[in-house]
Amino acid sequence: MQRRSAWAWVPSVSFSQGVPYVAAMMLSTVMYKNLGISNADLAFYTAWLYLPWVVKPLWSPVLELFGTKRRWTVLMQLAGAAGLASVALTLHLPDFFRWTLVIFWLLAFASATHDIASDGFYMLGLPTQRQQAAFVGVRSAFYKLAMIGGQGGIVYVAGALILSTGDPAHAWSIVFGLLALLFLGLCGWHQWMLPRPDADHRHTAGGALWRDFVQTFRSFFQKPGIVATLGFLLLYRLGEAQLLKMAAPFLLDPRDRGGLGLTTSEFGLVYGTIGVCALVLGGLAGGVVVSRFGLKRAIWPMVFIMHVPDLVFVYLATALPSHLTVIAACLAIEQFGYGFGFAAFLLYMVLVADGEHKTAHYAMCTGFMALGMMLPGMVSGWIQQQLGYQNFFIWACISTLPAFAMTALVRIPLEFGRK
Fold first, then answer.
1. 8 A C-beta contact, residue 264 and residue 159
2. Which domains does the chain have, with CATH numbers?
3. N or C: which end of the chain has fewer CB within 10 A?
4. Whole-prediction pTM value?
């Protein structure tokens, strides 16, 4: 095996996992809002971008048959750079919405494939559990750095360019061009710097691989209490899935349309930077609570802390505060609660996946998690247009009730999650 310091590639690969995801799932929503796309259209079509993450467990065996994990990692980064550049080049076309949606979908597909390859490569590049454990925090930190940089810094730059040029399409074209150059640089760095583990090779026994895959798939649906488990995975974020799609339109829409009228740069600051930092802190706090008390004891408080703060959007839509500090504080409260409660969700997926095929079963859990975000997100824009922002956020809060019902149905061992 070629020796490389893990510090030379683990942080940058983790950062690379976050960039295309942020671009496809978050920047696209803000960009389309700036370019005048209706809430119903942007919510419906951008929610479809979750689909590659929904079905990614189904094509993971294909990667094993047609290349090494190292090759797929670098290739998908090259595809990501091409996708980002293509968005930049098509924004001035008359039919930009259709073209950019196609490109974003391909970018999402490349990103989901990159996740499969790079997660597998991480375990091969750091072959011992001790090495892997040592860099878990590093991977999480650099992935979150990509989220903060994308939702916060990139959106802030886009807003500044919109103000200086007066042309949102040109501003976002510059932004995606810069992202493409960044990702191309990361691709070149990893082609040179990624180690070449001896265990990273293409599988030739295709028949055996597919038989193992079918058995793994079947064993997942034979788990005890799988119906309640699937209900929990699909419904735990039912309210949040709708709220998340409408957060950016609400914050950016003018006050005469029921929004808060923030500039794009202000949105990048209060939601993309302060909000994401609060999300990260909430996740860390949730992890500490679960490790101390165990998931069974902690899950009910965590469910409440995740969903009750959604009421701040009802307040914001009713009071329409103009002070940026008040808005930022409300968003920080909501995002902290989301991060806190989501830690319980992640640990529950670990519980479900535990067993002989834990890696594959965890990937299947994340697929159902993505489906639970995709389907409600698709209709959220239409619902908002029918109800208005205030009633929509009330509806989103009501939509959190199935999460409480499913929490009552799932079974959790008393000591699970407790150290």
1. yes
2. 8-190 (1.20.1250.20), 222-410 (1.20.1250.20)
3. C
4. 0.88
